[in-house]
Amino acid sequence: MSRLPLLTAETADAEQGELLTEVRRQLGRVPNLYATMANSPATLRGYLNFRDALTRGDLRARTRERLALLVAAENGCDYCVAAHTMRAGKLGLSDEEIQATRDAHADDPHTDAVLQLAAAVMRTRGDITDDALAAARAQGVTDAEIAETIGHVALNTLSNYFNHVARPELDFPPAPAAEPKETAMQSNWRQAHKVQLVSGYVITGRDGRPTDEVDDVLIRIEGGFLHIRLDPDGDAQVVSAPAVRLVTYRP
User: Fold this and answer.
1) Which stretch of DSSP H or E encloses residue 248?
2) Of 199, 190, 38, 61, whose CA–CA distance to 129 is shortest?
3) How many CA atoms are closer than 13 Å to the CA of 126, on its beta-carbon side?
4) Which has the least CB within 10 A, 8, 62, 233, 234?
5) How many helices (H) and strands (E) does the chain have?
6) Which whole-number Å values give the CA distances from 99 to 16, 171, 238, in the listed order?
7) Please, are residues 122 and 132 in contact by the beta-carbon 8 Å criterion?
8) Tens-digit pLDDT profile for residues 13-51
9) Which residues are 238's β-sheet partners?
10) pLDDT at 251
């Protein structure tokens, strides 16, 4: 049950009703997220204005939708994962592309770089390294797109956190469960140029000693954890996403 009232045309005041009418005009209905966010017209108006401004940026609609899905997955927002899974499908993304997006990957190098940048921003709370920016720029991500990526992280984190607090009933088709770990561990490993951990976190290096940085390894991101293989046939070491400071790939 929602922890904030689901406002309707009958229960909303004039300002709230105006905003709900605008949402219905844009989306064809009023999803429960918006019906609860309307309890604060200032919050809903700010959210809508921010969202609309970003639609006029340089990032394409499919990339914006993939960012929304990635951020929702990173923040563990089931409501927004469901909503953006449905929207991504309507924009033509395949089931495989949707799953890859939730793991911050895309076949297109530019889109992949944008998703990797967004994931790095979230996992470091914005304290990314020069190398992370350089990796994005190496794939053609412009300064405007870097700025917009941060904007999309902020916009979607707002809706994710709002849903965590308000807990509106899900009014979208539930998203498929994330790929089981057993399957993930058998496929979709990717060659990383460098993995750097946050200070205080270590894994075992090739020399058997603790280290916070390794080069030329295989990685797989799954369920908020980074799996690292120093060698193709070796055992995986696992660290939580907040422990990861940087992941770079060779151009």
Assistant:
1) strand 244-248
2) 199
3) 8
4) 233
5) 10, 7
6) 36, 21, 20
7) no
8) 999 999 999 999 999 999 999 999 999 999 999 999 999
9) 227
10) 63
Q: Which tokens is 234 given?
A: 């070796």
In degrees, rounded to 5, the angle at the alpha carbon of residue 2 between the alpha carbons of residues 158 and 101 is 40
* Amino acid letter for position 207: D
CATH 1.20.1290.10 placement within the chain: 14-166
Place of tokens 């639609």: 55
Fold of 14-166: AhpD-like (1.20.1290)
Tens of pLDDT, residue by residue over 84-117, are 999 999 999 999 999 999 999 999 999 999 999 9
Amino acid at 135: A
**What b-and-e string marks burial along 54-89, b requiring 16 or more CB atoms within 10 Å of the CB?**
beebebeebbbbbbbbbbbbbbebbbbbbbbbebbb
* Long-range interactions of 90-98: CB distance < 8 A, separation 24+: 91/61, 91/62, 91/65, 92/62, 93/62, 93/65, 93/66, 95/176, 98/69
Asked if 119 and 106 touch (Cβ cutoff 8 Å), the reply is no
Cβ distance 23 to 34 under 8 Å?
A: yes
